[in-house]
Design a protein that fits this description.
heterodimer; A: alpha/beta; Rossmann fold; five-stranded mixed beta sheet; 13 helices; 21% strand; B: alpha/beta; Pyruvate-ferredoxin Oxidoreductase, domain 3; six-stranded mixed beta sheet; 20% strand; globular
C-alpha cells in the first residue's frame, strides 16, 4: 500500500490542488454542487496563511478574486451554472484587464436553478461565450478526481503564464465522486512575469510573448485597470487601431501557444472505424464502451478533450484519425457536436448522442444507441 | 477477491444511518489493500430522514465508468430505500435486508437475485449493544462476512480512522456482530 494514496472527493481535490498550486485567496458564494470547495477553503486558507472571503453574491466573488489577483495573489473561486451566469460580467473584465484568475464551475442541470443535485454538461458553450464581446478563454475539463487535482494546478499555472482567466469545467458527478489519489508529488509552479524598471514603465507594453508584465498593485508602480479599451499605458482610448490591436493581442497571446495549452487523450484512434469524441465524466462511460466494442471485434476508438477551449479545428482533425463515423455523446442537447461538425463538415458522419434527464451516459446507453441507430 | 474482479456495492436506507460513511470506510479499507475504488452517493437536500443511497466500486484495475451498473451486493435498510433504489439488480446480486424493520417484497425471488439474506440487523444491534448507533458498521460486518471483500484487519483499521477513541470498542463489537449474524445464518442454512 502507498501511504500517500488517499480517498478524496472531486471538490476536495480542486481545493487541495489550488493550495498546492499556490492559491492563497479564495472568495466565493457557496452553491451546490461546488459548496464543499468553499467549505474546505474556509478551513484551509487560514491554515496556509491565505484569505477566505464569503461574499454576498457571485458578482462580488469574482470581483474580489480579480482584485486580489491584481494585487499579486494566486486566486480561486468556485460556482455552478446559476452563479456562473452572474460571474460573466467579471469574467469579461478579467479578460480585458488580463487578471490571472481560476474559476471552477461544476455543471448541474439547467437552465436557471434547474436541478441542483443532478449532473449535466449544459454549460459548455457558456464557458466559452458566456460573457459578451470578442474574448478568449482557457477551459479545462477533468474526468476524474485525480485529474481535478492536476488540472486545477495546471489552471493556476496557465492563468499566471498568460494572464488570462482559466475555467475548470467540472460537473456534479466528479465534484461528489470519491477516488484514490496520490498527492505526494510536488507540482511545478509558474509565476507571472513582473516588471523590473520603474522608469518608462507601461503596464500593457508587451514583448514577443504578447503577455504584459503588469506590476502587482502596491509594489510602487503606477497602476491603471479598466474594462474600457486601453493602450499600453492602461488608460482608456476610443482609437480603433488601438482597440483592434488589443483584441488581436488578447487572442494571439493564447493562439500563438496552442501546443502549450491544448491537451487531449486518444484511445486506439489509429485503426478506429467508429470514433467517440467526448469530454469530462461522459468520457468514462465511453472508455468502457470502447473496451467492450473492441472485445467484440469492433474497431472503436475515443478522443477525449482535456482542453475544451481554445478549440483548434486542425488539431482535432489530426487527432481524430480516419474513422468514418464520429459519435459525440454529451449531457446536453448538442453543444460539442456543433464544433465537431464544424471540423469535419460533410467529410464524416457526425452523430450527436444526447442525454438530458439528469443521469450519466452509461456504457449500456451507448451500446443501446449504436443498436438503435444501426451504427 | 480475484485479481481482475470488479466488486459493486449499493447500500440504501434512511439519511442519518451512516451508509455513506460506511461506503467511505469500506472504500478506504480497499485502498489500504492497493485496490482502486470509486465511491458515490445520491446528493439531496435530505441529510437526515430522507432516502439515501451510497455506491462503491472496488477493482484491482482502473475503473472507467464510476457508477454501479450490476451490483454484487445490494443492502437495503428501509422499505423506502429498497423501493427507490432496489432496481437494476440481477441474478448476480446478493440482497441484504433488515428484517427487523422491513417486509420482504414480492419482487425479490430466485429469479430476480442470487440470494436474499434477511437479517434482523437493527433489533439485534439494540438487543446486544443497547444502541441504535453503529447500524452502518453492523452492516459492514454483514457485507464482510458475506464477501470477504477486504481483510477484517484492514476493515478494523479503516473504521478506526473514522470513529472517536471512546467509541472504538462499540464499533468493533458492531462489526463482529454483523459477521456473527452471517455466520449464524450460514449454519442454520435458512434463507428467507
Amino acid at each position: 500500500m502507498n501511504e500517500h494514496v488517499v480517498l478524496m472527493q472531486g471538490n476536495e481535490a480542486v481545493a487541495e490542488g489550488a493550495i498546492a498550486a499556490g492559491v492563497r485567496f479564495y472568495a466565493g458564494y457557496p452553491i451546490t454542487p461546488s459548496s464543499e470547495i468553499a467549505e474546505i477553503m474556509a478551513r484551509r486558507m487560514p491554515e496556509v496563511g491565505g484569505v477566505f472571503l464569503q461574499m454576498e453574491d457571485e458578482i462580488a466573488s469574482i470581483m474580489a478574486i480579480i482584485g486580489a489577483s491584481l494585487a499579486g495573489k494566486k486566486v480561486l473561486t468556485a460556482t455552478s451554472g446559476p452563479g456562473f451566469s452572474l460571474m460573466q460580467e467579471g469574467l469579461g473584465y478579467a479578460c480585458m484587464v488580463e487578471a490571472p484568475i481560476v474559476l471552477l464551475e461544476s455543471m448541474r442541470y439547467g437552465p436557471s436553478t434547474g436541478m441542483p443535485t443532478k449532473v449535466s454538461q449544459m454549460d459548455l458553450m457558456q464557458s466559452r461565450w458566456g460573457t459578451h464581446g470578442d474574448h478568449w478563454i482557457i477551459v479545462l475539463s477533468p474526468a476524474s478526481v485525480e485529474e481535478s487535482y492536476r488540472l486545477t494546478i495546471r489552471a493556476v499555472n496557465l492563468a499566471e503564464k498568460y494572464r488570462n482567466p482559466v475555467i475548470v469545467l467540472s460537473d456534479e458527478t466528479i465534484s461528489h465522486l470519491r477516488e484514490p489519489i496520490d498527492v505526494s508529488v510536488s507540482p511545478t509552479l509558474t509565476d507571472r512575469k513582473l516588471p523590473v524598471e520603474k522608469s518608462g514603465y507601461l503596464p500593457y507594453r508587451t514583448d514577443i510573448s504578447l503577455v504584459p508584465a503588469i506590476a502587482n498593485i502596491g509594489t510602487g508602480f503606477h497602476t491603471s485597470f479598466t474594462g474600457l479599451v486601453h493602450g499600453e499605458s492602461g488608460f482608456q482610448t476610443a482609437n480603433g487601431h488601438v482597440a483592434e490591436a488589443l483584441v488581436e493581442r488578447l487572442r494571439d497571446k493564447l493562439f500563438n501557444n496552442l501546443d502549450d495549452i491544448i491537451q487531449f487523450e486518444t484511445d486506439r484512434v489509429e485503426d478506429a472505424e467508429i470514433l467517440f469524441v467526448s469530454f469530462g465524466i461522459t468520457a468514462r462511460g465511453v472508455s468502457e464502451t470502447v473496451e467492450t466494442l473492441r472485445s467484440r471485434g469492433r474497431k472503436a476508438g475515443a478522443l477525449r478533450l482535456v482542453t475544451l477551449f481554445p478549440f483548434d479545428d486542425d488539431r482535432i482533425r489530426q487527432a481524430a484519425g480516419s474513422a468514418r463515423t464520429i459519435i459525440v455523446p454529451e449531457l446536453n442537447s448538442g453543444q460539442l457536436v456543433l464544433l465537431i461538425k464544424r471540423v469535419f463538415g460533410d467529410s464524416r458522419k457526425v452523430v450527436p448522442m444526447n442525454k438530458i434527464n439528469g443521469d450519466l451516459i452509461s456504457p449500456q446507453d451507448i451500446l443501446d444507441f449504436l443498436q438503435e441507430e444501426n451504427l | 477477491m480475484g485479481t481482475d474482479k470488479r466488486f459493486e456495492l449499493r447500500m440504501t436506507g434512511s439519511g442519518g444511518q451512516g451508509l455513506i460513511l460506511g461506503s467511505i470506510i469500506l472504500a478506504e479499507a480497499a485502498i489500504m489493500e492497493g485496490k482502486i475504488v470509486t465511491q458515490s452517493q445520491v446528493y439531496g437536500a435530505e441529510a437526515r430522514g430522507g432516502t439515501t443511497k451510497a455506491e462503491l466500486v472496488i477493482s484491482s484495475k482502473h475503473i472507467a465508468y464510476p457508477k454501479v451498473t450490476d451490483p454484487d451486493v445490494l443492502a437495503a435498510m428501509t422499505d423506502e430505500g429498497l423501493r427507490q433504489y432496489g432496481g437494476g439488480i440481477s441474478r448476480k446480486t446478493e440482497v441484504i435486508i433488515d428484517s427487523s424493520v422491513m417486509t420482504t417484497p414480492d419482487f425479490l425471488n430466485e429469479e430476480s437475485c442470487r440470494d436474499l439474506l434477511a437479517l434482523p440487523i437493527r433489533s439485534t444491534l439494540v438487543d446486544r449493544l443497547a444502541t441504535e448507533l453503529g447500524l452502518n458498521i453492523v452492516l459492514l460486518g454483514v457485507i464482510e462476512g458475506l464477501t470477504g471483500v477486504v481483510s477484517v484487519e484492514t476493515l478494523r483499521k479503516a473504521i478506526g480512522k473514522h470513529v472517536k477513541k471512546q467509541h472504538l470498542d462499540l464499533n468493533m463489537r458492531a462489526l463482529d456482530l454483523g459477521m456473527e449474524m452471517v455466520e449464524a445464518q450460514a449454519k442454520t442454512g435458512i434463507r428467507i
